[in-house]
Design brief:
The complex is a heterodimer of chains A (about 325) and B (about 475). With about 325 residues, chain A is of the alpha+beta class. In chain A, about 25% of the residues lie in helices and about 30% in strands. The two termini of chain A are about 20 Å apart. With about 475 residues, chain B is α+β, with helices and mostly antiparallel strands. The interface between A and B is large, with 71 and 90 residues. The structure holds flavin-adenine dinucleotide (FAD) (2 copies). One flavin-adenine dinucleotide binds near residues 76, 193 and 409 of chain B.
Chain lengths: ~325, ~475
């Protein structure tokens, strides 16, 4: 599918004063039938990859699983452990800024973004950043738009830094939650080559990479990192799932299902929103949730302003 | 009252500099070929005074040029004749170090190296280490998204900043945190060169010091062998903490300056540092040594202890001043290129060097493709600066042509405005201007820097043309 196809669709929508809803694999957004879908799932494939340059360039609709597969064939990986909720696309994960357990050690998704190609709300093709690990020419739009949830423009291609695949070993220690939070932070302050540190169902789990000193903790299967899933069918009724980001040393929060990222991320189930500053509702049933620009703080004014830079006629819903 | 009178009236007298002689040190940054005297220099001691200064300047529609330590190499903090310099050197307190959470909260005027020094008792450090780290400020680092020799493994400034406090032109205080949902404003402010707001507080990540670090120095007879060695080290699955390359001329200059035992006969020198726990470092040292030999290194030297390791780095870290000693002036370029283009790019630079009759020393952050050609010139010779700038612009053009970029870490400032026209299309540059307007509609914060006007690009005829369509065809061309 050529890019002009998407440009046409956007220009058509502009002309007809209709809105478009960008979708990757729709694992989050439920289609709103008032709007037309701009479906990226068919726009897939790797367009540039030279392992020695540590950079891969992919079309936004590429499935995370396909990308990981290709990289692993060259002994490389996406180092931010981006989650795959079943055929998630790289564009969708970029638009939601999703990183996993290794974030405190290697960095978040946005840390690995080197450049993007996009189409803005007027149908213009734009390129920001590139394939270089270092690049400070112009504002860092490629990173700015991480987390933009499809509201600012259509991201068509993403260049990401990749790292060598490393051998991993997982260990566990049984302990209480409060102790685990302290223990994790202490461990992260040592030279141990850690790439993940979580607390799940009464155990502190940590993952080491490469060659490392012998451990007295219990060896575990690496697969445990995929099983630490906060989505549970039994969460129902008034109970909601919250993704909470706190300082890593934050004390235990009631009804925590999983602590990840050395304590900085907590998955909490409760009726009411936990009372800390960075909380996202993860809607399990009705899938739609869009950021709104309604409040009148300076930050929202700026975000609203930036939205109109990229999408002045509010084409993207 | 005019703006200067009002500043003098409202702020402590010793924090407002109006005297010509005292203003002199603020006339330029590290790109000293460009100089200008501002109306006044204000040195606020706290956030309140920053806000006051902004309010007064705004009232008088006076441009504000934020300044850290003035070590920038692209003229980012070059004053404007009708502007006020806001120097943040007095805001230099470390506000908090949390050893368990491994974070530090600091004011913008804190020098880069001070953070690591203060964190040492906890066995922690702040990773990004620009060669200017003894002088440059952390606020300037954020504003430039600066890098250093250890950035290949540990990231640039943007990767090591967790939150910042910014004062907008209208005096509002924004806290931008890496955990914020939605667009990544924290990333946007990194590298924004003082155009979007004044950064007044920074929370940085601290890392545990590695148990062990090993420096491996390798000498090559051929530049291309050295370039291949770099590629093959990265292919072998190792991400070294530092991977730096120097050409013959830089080796000679650095050795004459630092006397650290660099091999003078080598065509290229590679410094590769691996770090981590003892076990890993031993394994990596073995792999790296093997790859180096396989790629034609004729001499390998392993640092035997930390003293020797640090000494060997001294040559590289002082490469700029070392080259500076050999010539009245030098001009430092900062392009990035795909590593596989290195040999080609160095050949081309050599050719240009002959054409312009100007010598060049090349130092290279080889791991991340960031090339610093240092062009030697003499500003006293009429026309030589102009010639040097043409040479520099041609190097940047070459970087773009091979798929790279015009600046890896030094920023655009005033210096690379013309080259921006080559790297970006008109609609892209227009987006940059609109972003600026969201934050600073009256264009008072560091105006004229970092992003060229479309008019300038059109005049230069440098406009990057997409699909054969001339942008802004209605604009008059010259
Ligand atoms: C039950 C459940 C709940 C979830 N809740 C949340 C949540 O609350 N917050 C959250 O951040 N993530 C949430 N996620 C994760 C996330 O929604 C997706 O799994 C992930 O983004 C990848 O999905 P996708 O490719 O299917 O994208 P989609 O689900 O189709 O799209 C995700 C978002 O990305 C945008 N998008 C997709 N592709 C592009 C593109 N090429 N250019 C621009 N924008 C694009 C869409 O407009 C949409 O806003 C949830 C996942 C599940 C399974
Ligand atoms: C010998 C030498 C070696 C160098 N080596 C390196 C290197 O290895 N890597 C590298 O990346 N750079 C290097 N540099 C360049 C320079 O040191 C960096 O760009 C540094 O980050 C600038 O910091 P500063 O405090 O001196 O900022 P200044 O030069 O004062 O300002 C730089 C820019 O930042 C803006 N600014 C400063 N502080 C703030 C603030 N608080 N809020 C908003 N805007 C602000 C200014 O307006 C200006 O645009 C080197 C320079 C020299 C002279």
């Amino acid at each position: 599918m050529p890019l002009t196809h998407f440009q046409e669709q956007i220009k058509q929508a502009l002309h007809e004063k209709r809105r478009l809803q960008i979708i990757g694999n729709q694992s989050k957004v439920a289609l709103n039938h008032e709007h037309q879908a701009l479906d990226m799932s068919g726009y897939a494939g790797i367009t540039g990859y030279d392992p020695a340059e540590l950079v891969v360039t992919v079309k936004a609709g590429t499935k995370i699983s396909d990308l990981k597969q290709e990289l692993s064939e060259h002994n490389q990986m996406l180092a931010f452990d981006t989650p795959d909720y079943g055929d998630s696309t790289i564009g969708g994960n970029y638009a939601c800024g999703l990183s996993g357990p290794s974030q405190p050690f290697f960095g978040a998704l946005r840390d690995f973004v080197l450049g993007i190609k996009m189409i803005d709300g007027q149908g213009q093709q734009l390129t920001f950043g590139g394939q270089m690990i270092k690049n400070v020419a112009g504002y860092d739009v490629a990173r700015l738009l991480v987390g933009s949830k499809g509201l600012f423009g259509l991201v068509t291609e993403i260049s990401l830094k990749v790292l060598p695949l490393m051998e991993e070993k997982t260990y566990s220690i049984e302990m209480g939650q409060a102790d685990a939070i302290i223990k994790m932070n202490e461990m992260a302050g040592t030279a141990l080559p850690i790439s993940g540190c979580a607390y799940y169902q009464g155990k502190l789990y940590y993952r080491l990479i490469g060659v490392h000193p012998p451990q007295s903790a219990m060896p575990e299967d690496n697969y445990i990192w995929h099983k630490m899933n906060p989505f549970r069918p039994e969460i129902s009724g008034k109970q909601k799932l919250w993704r909470v980001s706190v300082d890593s040393m934050h004390p235990p929060i009631h009804n925590t299902l999983l602590i990840d990222q050395v304590g900085a991320r907590r998955w909490v189930v409760s009726e009411n929103k936990p009372d800390v500053s960075h909380v996202d509702l993860w809607n399990l049933h009705e899938k739609t949730r869009r950021p709104s620009f309604d409040s009148h703080t300076k930050i929202t004014d700026i975000k609203r302003g930036l939205k109109s830079v990229f999408d002045p006629y509010e084409i993207f819903y | 009252m005019n703006v200067v009178q009002e500043l003098l009236h409202r702020l402590p007298r010793d924090q407002v500099i109006v005297d010509d002689e005292q203003k002199a040190p603020f006339e330029c940054d590290g790109l000293s070929a460009y100089r200008e005297k501002p109306l006044a220099v204000v040195l606020p001691a706290n956030i309140e005074q920053v806000k006051q200064t902004l309010a007064i300047c705004r009232k008088h529609s006076t441009p504000i040029i934020t300044r850290g330590s003035g070590t920038g190499l692209s003229g980012g903090s070059l004053p404007l004749k009708n502007g006020v310099v806001l120097g943040l050197s007095k805001m230099s307190r470390i506000l908090e170090i949390d050893p368990l959470a491994r974070t530090a909260v600091v004011e913008p005027g804190v020098r880069n190296i001070t953070i690591s020094q203060e964190a040492t008792p906890y066995n922690l450090y702040y990773a990004p280490d620009p060669s200017s780290q003894v002088a440059c400020s952390i606020g300037g680092n954020v504003a430039e998204n600066s890098g250093g020799v250890h950035c290949l493994k540990y990231g640039l400034t943007v990767h090591n900043v967790l939150a910042i406090k910014v004062i907008t032109i209208d005096g509002e205080e924004l806290v931008l945190d890496y955990r914020d949902d939605g667009v990544d404003l924290l990333a946007l402010l990194n590298g924004s060169e003082g155009l979007l707001g004044v950064i007044v507080e920074i929370k940085v990540k601290l890392l545990p010091k590695p148990d062990a670090s090993q420096l491996i120095m390798a000498a090559f007879e051929k530049v291309s062998d050295c370039a291949n060695a770099v590629t093959n080290i990265l292919k072998s699955g190792i991400i070294p903490a530092g991977l730096e390359m120097m050409d013959k001329f830089s080796i000679e200059a650095a050795e004459a300056f630092a006397h650290v035992g660099y091999p003078l006969e080598a065509a290229a020198l590679l410094l590769c540092e691996v770090d981590g726990n003892q076990y890993q470092v031993e394994a990596d040292t073995e792999t790296v040594s093997r790859v180096l030999k396989e790629n034609g290194a004729y001499m390998l030297k392993l640092s035997r202890n930390d003293e020797e390791r640090i000494a060997l780095w001294q040559g590289r870290k002082n490469a700029f001043p070392a080259v500076g000693r050999l010539s009245p002036d030098y001009y430092c370029m900062d392009g990035t290129i795909p590593r596989n283009q290195l040999a080609h790019v160095l050949d081309e630079i050599e050719r240009m060097s002959k054409y312009y009759e100007l010598k060049v020393a090349n130092v290279f952050h080889a791991g991340d493709g960031n090339l610093h050609p240092l062009i030697l010139y003499d500003a006293q010779i009429p026309g030589e600066l102009k010639k040097t700038e043409l040479f520099g612009a041609e190097i940047l053009k070459l970087c773009i042509d091979v798929g790279g970029t015009i600046t890896g870490e030094h920023g655009v400032g005033v210096e690379k405005l013309d080259s921006m026209c080559q790297q970006f299309s008109a609609p892209e540059i227009e987006i940059f201007h609109k972003i600026k307007r969201v934050f600073d509609p009256e264009n008072l914060l560091n105006p004229g820097k970092a992003v060229p006007t479309l008019h300038r690009c059109a005049e230069l005829g440098h406009m990057h043309v997409h699909n054969g369509q001339l942008p802004f065809a209605h604009l008059e061309r010259f």
